[in-house]
Amino acid sequence: MQVQTHVDINSEWGIVAARQAGRKLAREVGFGSVDQARITTAISELARNIYLYADQGQIKIEEVAEGGKRGMKIIASDQGPGIKDLRRVMEDGFTTSGGLGAGLPGVKRLMDDFAIESELNQGTVITAVKWLR
Amino acid sequence: MQVSMYRLYKDMLTSYLRDKSETALYHAQQFSKQMMEQDMSPEETVSLHLSVFQELAEDLPEEVTDSFDLLLEVMIGYGLAYREHQSLRDRQQELESELNVAAQMQRTLLPDKQVDTEEIDFGVISVPAGKMSGDYYHYDEDSVGNFAVAVADVIGKGVPAAMSMSMIKYAMDTLTDKQTEPAGVLESLNRVVERNIDEDMFITMMYGVYYPESHQFHFASAGHEPGFFYRSAADTFESLEAKGLVLGVSPKVRYEERGFRLDPGDFVVFLSDGVTESRVDGEFIERDTVVSMIKERLHLSAQEIVNELFEELEKAQEFQLRDDFTLMILRRKF
Hints:
The complex is a heterodimer of chains A (133) and B (334).
Chain A: E1 4-9, H1 12-29, H2 33-54, E2 57-66, E3 69-78, H3 86-89, H4 103-110, E4 113-119, E5 123-131
Antiparallel strand pairs in A: 1-2, 2-3, 3-5, 4-5
Helix pairs in contact in A: 1-2, 2-4
Chain B: H1 2-19, H2 22-37, H3 42-56, H4 62-107, E1 120-127, E2 135-141, E3 147-154, H5 158-173, H6 182-196, E4 203-211, E5 216-222, E6 227-231, E7 236-240, E8 258-261, E9 267-271, H7 273-276, E10 279-280, E11 283-284, H8 287-295, H9 302-316, E12 325-332
Helix pairs in contact in B: 1-2, 1-3, 3-4, 5-6
InterPro entries (chain A): HATPase_C_sf, HATPase_dom
Protein name (chain A): Anti-sigma regulatory factor
GO molecular function (chain B): phosphatase activity
């Protein structure tokens, strides 16, 4: 049975709840303490982005299995303003230089797979997966 | 890799906990280089420390172990900053090598043939402050032996200035053999530059021609740093100035052309403001300084004079050029 958790993000409490759920699942899936902290940081950043730029959205975390690999998937979705220039926000030094934290390039580095889809005035969906080694 | 790192770290920590010796700390410092070479992140280092420590110390209080959760969390941020730094450094290296190729290409735009005539002793040096130069120089002997020289300076620095510089080169190539009078040359170039350059950029230039038949030297200037004219018989330097607007400001500009005779030993000096704006002890050097530096070296060849002047001014500025530096001397031999 695959574990799935949804957390609504509309306050900083939501961010903490998402972190908590993420850390718990990461531990259950079997990640070590460093990877647990990485996954949690990734969730934290994604949830913060929702909270700061889209007001509200959702973090979904689930266990995944594919071709003998096991891992954990994070899906962050919102119905916010969307991102105009994806290439720009994925650039190193773009968000961090403004002191906003790890930013999306950071999330990409913390995880193994990363995908982003964004539509102006529709919202953004970010999917990130970390695989067990 | 992880296993051997674990082993190494365990040995180091064991030895340090036993002796508290500086040697163990020295090993740790060397070890940190190895970790970075292997792309080990700060959070992995913290985690390595904890697992080794847990193995070495029996009955570690729970608070100590728990406190590492906090440290680990904080270190994730440092780890990200570290990786970002690495990727930015790689990108910088990429840009640097691209710029090197561009600078190499730019150098091919400058003339490099040896000047070897009975009558003329010629020398030039041009050194960019950065990788790309906003200075341009030119020299060429036409089919009847007239010798043209020019120095141009794009106002602005770096890549945009360097790109404008190539325009001057191509515009000069389109001049026909008949267009050799300095004022006429500057008028043609001005038309090209005015049409092709951004409003906030402009180019200063001095262009001269030596006619060996008559021993006359003619020149015109587009708002360029005045050169010098050395009269051998009187042992005096004069400023080389002519009226004219910088290139690229107005479509139709007339340039004043001046001329004089070069006697044996006389020479003209063209330069860019990178020479006169050399700063020694925070102060711009005076044009007189340049003159007296040349005067001390009259016995040398034109090329030796410009080389030595550059070396001396470069040294006086502690090898930090603030502007592109171009210096050219054309002397009539005895």
